[in-house]
């Protein structure tokens, strides 16, 4: 039984592709085979080294994250000065370690009221604050006696934590909220153990409210400056940044392709190209950042942000996207073409790594991320989202504008560079065209001479000179006319944009210039 997809049944499909080819062991193919294998191996090695290095850099920034939690500083103020405050200190002694935030005990004189703590957190002097309310221990003791004091006892006015969830929302729960809740529970156990017999003796066992106070002395109160609980918060510092960078890279490829296709570098002055490219990139990134911000706002369920924050959020991705458009353009100008895709993926990984975690949770080496624009723009965005409670504009904005100005300067110089080499290439192409025309004319003249030798002489002896002169004039006119027509056809064909020429269906799929080709 013949197979379903036997070649003889499908000879009508791409017949040229089924024509016989030399064997792989053919002497003419063997050198090509070795060159291909060598080039493929070298490119495989360099790409694997690149991605291995990027993976090591990425995972290195996350290495032993839990052992760096002690770098997260939490302010503690005891406004009570009683047994509850001592229980909190005892609980911290039990929990203290590399995987627990660093609780810094400060005097009430430094922060007279709880409102001062919120201002301190907003100024990012600490990641969070934890405090015991004034007279909390006395109110607890009085409630044990029963009566109205027990029934009106406020469990939420004993221990309070103040934090800003909008500051690295993807990790703030695990490194701030959860540990402080654990501290509260351990402190409750320590407080009960410390009370012992005195607590039992003071308890009014006939009063259910008093017994309830003893069994559950407090509920930790959370003062979240900007609650950020929506699911999309997990990708604000990862996929959103990656998509912005990829978005600029693709449009940059479109723009560069159009300039080459229409030969604008030899048709338009470079300074006009610079201005037009800036305008085009600004408009593109303007609408691109609007789409990004619109998507964030559309899926912000439960996130309390206003119109002013929307506008500010729109402006920051615009600046970030535009400077990255220029930076990637610099890569495409000054980096050899085979290495441009490698530069793109490296740029993406370096930027994203700088904002995956707070630097407090990464090894000290990765503070090099301060220089990357993604880190700066994310700091500004967190400041916008939390209403000014991440004041790092003093360094973030200078970093962003430094990248913008530097990339703009190098990109503008690159336009002149491209125009320079485009002019050189045009001169070489024109010279090659003239040589082809001259060769074609020479071949045509030789053919005409050969035809003359084969034709018999025309006319009489008396008008021989006149006939020879007429023949020479007709030959000259014919040669000039055909030459001019040939020049016009060749020039017209070479001058047309590529989009107007006959296109081939020969599509080999995406391909890149290779670092090694042999």
TrEMBL record:
Residue spans of biased composition, Basic and acidic residues class: 492-506
Superkingdom assignment: Eukaryota
UniProt keyword annotations, A-Z: Membrane, Transmembrane, Transmembrane helix
Region annotation (Disordered) ranges: 1-26, 453-477, 492-518
Gene Ontology CC, one term: membrane
Listed transmembrane segments: 40-63, 234-262, 274-299, 311-332, 339-359, 395-416
DUF3533 domain: residues covered: 43-408
Stretch forming the signal peptide: none
Protein name: DUF3533 domain-containing protein
Species in which this protein is naturally found: Aspergillus felis
Source lineage: Eukaryota, Fungi, Dikarya, Ascomycota, Pezizomycotina
